[in-house]
Amino acid sequence: MVDDFAAEVQALQENQEFMDFLARRSQSDKRVSLEEARKRLGIW
């Protein structure tokens, strides 16, 4: 199981499209607080 996870991590790190997606996502200023997420999901 650990080997599968390590292989998946390596594959994702080598996937430029995925890494570009993460870079764009990390620059986003859109955030939702935990409280707001709970309200939206109806679990508050």
The secondary-structure element order is HHH
Beta-strand percentage? Answer: under 5%
Q: Specify the overall morphology.
A: flat
Relative helix content: over 70%
Alpha carbon gyration radius:
16 Å
Total of DSSP H or I helical runs spanning 4+ residues: 3
The structural domain count equals: 1
Low-pLDDT segments:
none
Terminus-to-terminus distance? 35 Å
Main beta-sheet annotation: none
Class by SSE composition: mainly alpha
Question: How many runs of DSSP E, i.e. beta strands?
Answer: 0
Q: Which whole number gives the mean pLDDT?
A: 92
Question: Explain this structure to me?
Answer:
This protein has helices spanning 2-13, 16-27, 34-41. The longest helix is centred in the first third of the chain and has 12 residues, at 2-13. It has one domain (2-41). It has 44 residues and is mainly alpha-helical. It is flat, with a radius of gyration of 16 Å. It contains three helices and no strands. It is 73% helix and 0% strand. It starts with a helix and ends with a helix. This is CopG family transcriptional regulator.
Topology readout:
Elements: H1 2-13, H2 16-27, H3 34-41
Describe, in short, the structure shown.
It comes from Sphaerospermopsis kisseleviana CS-549. The protein is flat. The chain has one domain.
